[in-house]
Design goal:
The chain is 40% helix and 10% strand. The chain is of the alpha+beta class and 125 residues long. It has a domain of 38 residues. Helix 3 runs antiparallel to helix 4. The longest helix has 13 residues.
Length: 125
């Protein structure tokens, strides 16, 4: 699906689950499709985790390096679920009022500012 001309109904339909959201973000070049281990240059494999959603994990038993599938993307430093982030960005991009966005995405202004602070501390802002 192409991002231009996207409406909210299309977005919700495309992202029914976290896996659907990840697939959509990858199809639109917003998340990496593959990763090489920064330690040993082996192709990493995607693995689920209970705490961080999905991670890239090095399959080499001597290495075992892992990092979030968000690493190196726009979503890298945010603690929010990807689906909420995409919803937030959509409503922000169509210039909805902050109170409306908070209500629709079920997110507080505190969570938004915490995410911005984390990104600023990481040097993304």
């Amino acid at each position: 699906m192409i991002v231009a001309g996207l409406n909210h109904r299309d977005l919700v339909w495309a992202m029914r689950t976290e896996d659907d959201c990840i697939a959509w973000l990858r199809a639109n070049c917003l998340l990496a499709v593959s990763q090489q281990c920064p330690c040993c240059a082996t192709a990493m494999k995607e693995s689920p985790t209970s705490q961080h959603g999905k991670v890239w994990q090095c399959p080499t038993t001597d290495c075992c390096h892992c990092h979030s599938i968000r690493k190196g993307s726009f979503f890298d430093c945010s603690p929010l679920p990807l689906i909420k982030l995409v919803d937030f960005i959509y409503w922000w991009s169509v210039k909805m009022r902050n109170t409306y966005i908070e209500s629709e995405v079920v997110i507080s202004h505190v969570e938004i500012y915490q995410g911005l602070i984390i990104q600023a501390e990481a040097g993304y802002c």
